[in-house]
Amino acid sequence: MTTTPYKIQAEPQTAGPFGGPAVTRLGTVAVVGLGYVGLPTSVALASCGRPVIGIDIDSRRIEEIRSGQPDLVPGDEAKLLSLRGDEGRLSMTTEAGAMAEADAVLICVPTPIDASHEPDLRALRAACASVVAQARPGQTLVLTSTSYVGTTRELLVEPLAARGLTAGIDLHVAFAPERIDPGNVAHGQEATPRVVGGVTVACAESAAEVLGEVAPRIAIVSSCEAAELTKLYENTFRAVNIALAFELGQIADEYGLDTVEVTDAAATKPYGYMPFYPGPGVGGHCIPCDPHYLLSPLRERGFDAPLVRGAMQTIAERPAFVVARAGQGLAGGCPGGGGGRGRITGGADKPGGRGGGG
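Predicted structure:
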């Protein structure tokens, strides 16, 4: 594992109310949330020899994993199979109190949006509150769930301070956004660099020590907020370019041209271009949701991001546009007009129904 540090201002590491600085060699890792991020993360860490406690409030999810229905890529599924029955390497429980036994805690819970496209923070708030309640001096707490800028301080650092635990002195707190792409064997954790931002330098380095066991390189940025915005930028970049591809498809159609031909031709340029292709819409957990974790807080601050806002509007309208076009095509291709029938093949955005990741 290598790290790529940016300039970070270290804070004085003086003793806190519970004793000296919370710098400890890492042992057991608790992973809160065993979904499409938490489960492969748990398997990867346990496969490296790190004792892992997987915690999920849904007992049915734990039973699914134990019964061999883990929705993992084949390589991770094989690793999980090799860990089965070895409670010393990977144990699972619904008991939040188990995280007090861990030296590091990774929070990997979903951050969806509601019907109004506003962030739905119920799972994240509950998980962070549970972690804060169980936190003890010497631990390293790492939030990996995609969320708005300021989440780590609001949901971890400040509540910990209210308990008398100071981040960077009594324990370490960092944000390290997940980079799991469900179902994609070409971009496993072992081949994907991670970004880490800590409350202090020591916080970032402690989080990097945990994640460095399963990532080839760690890029340390200057703060939790910088890491939070990094993740939002990554997925907003994709959303904006997908929306542009949708619009280009309509432009090409206006001229009677083939969008794929034009996109493939543009992709022959070896610099300054990345191909995106139009489709019926955007699925998965990340691209339809994450940019709203940028837009919603900005609206509250009175700041408008018209490019991002327009892209998300285009993405939201795409399925209805495709359905309307299909209806026009069926009507136009049937004798007497109307009455045509169509067939939709493949309703998932990825093979096996695995949602898109970030």
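Summary: The chain is about 40% helix and 10% strand.
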